[in-house]
Amino acid sequence: MPELPEVEVTRRGIERELAGRVISGVAVREPRLRWPVPKDVHRLAGRTVRAIQRRGKYLLVDCGDGHLILHLGMSGSLRVLPSGTPAQKHDHFDLQLGDRILRLRDPRRFGAVLWTSADIDGHPLLAHLGIEPLSRALHPARLYQLTRAHRTGIKQFLMDGRRVVGVGNIYANESLFLAGIHPRAPARKLSLERCMKLSAAIKQTLRAAIRAGGSSLRDFVGADGSSGYFQSRYWVYDRSGERCRRCGSAIRRIQQGSRSTFYCPTCQR
Ligand SMILES: [Zn+2]
After folding, report:
1. How far away, in angstroms, is 265 Cα from ligand 1 center?
2. 107: annotated active-site residue
3. Which one, out of 13, 34, 199, 253, has a CA that is 20 to 30 A from the CA of 70?
């Protein structure tokens, strides 16, 4: 599943290619995505792409008087291709921009293509999203404040997109290792000092993944459905039973909610 770093890498690649271009047409080959692709999406023609923004894992094509909302779902990817490139199976949606097309491929069809001309921050899909982990909104005092009311372990807090959006399972595990925090540590008892370490670790982990994704980016734009760009470099994620790269202890795996958590019993307290 595309995670926040892949979505951000996609955003940067698309924005570089498409900002300033005029939308010349739209092709919908399969409207049955997670939600039906709206019929009036054809009216986008003639608008100029001002910027590509991101909120959580939603990409927002800013057209000035509204936003095209894109989501990659479980298996989606976006590519910028020369116009006229034949569509393959699962290529459900094209935004045409002169001699370029932005093409959504999505085999499992959990992705989304939506349009809104209303206030984007108030959109039902976005209004309840938590703070952006890569923005200044995530800082130690804010994390300290947000965690006070949370009765669960810190790992589950990080997985709750209404508090901090888009950290995801891989990066939550890796960030907690870097910060030396046990995933079951009660969120509301985290000291300000540990909130400082954790907010820095979250940014560090996500930025490293974006850098790794960005360096593999050429004409191809963004996530291809494969998970993680730096799998071999994980500290704890998916390494149950293997040795901690820092202290040699065996990495443990536990279940929290419906997700697997991996941690080092020595490095994380
Ligand atoms: Zn360790």
Report:
1. 7
2. no
3. 199
- The amino acid sitting at 38 is P
CA of 55 from ligand 1 middle (Å) equals: 34
3-state DSSP of 15-69: HHHHCCCECCEEEECCCECCCECCHHHHHHCCCECCEEEEECCEEEEECCCCEEE
Point out the catalytic residue in the list 50, 203, 207, 259: 259
The one catalytic residue in 54, 55, 57, 103 is 57
132 noted as active-site residue: no
Per-residue pLDDT tens digits of the chain, which is 269 residues long: 888 998 999 999 899 999 999 999 999 999 999 999 999 898 899 999 999 999 999 999 999 999 999 999 988 999 999 999 999 999 999 999 999 999 999 999 999 999 999 999 999 999 999 999 999 999 999 999 999 999 899 999 999 999 999 999 999 999 999 999 999 999 999 999 999 999 999 999 999 988 887 654 443 344 443 444 455 589 999 999 999 999 999 999 999 999 999 999 999 99
Active site residue 259: yes
pTM to 2 decimals? Answer: 0.90
C-alpha 30/C-alpha 39 separation (Å) is 12
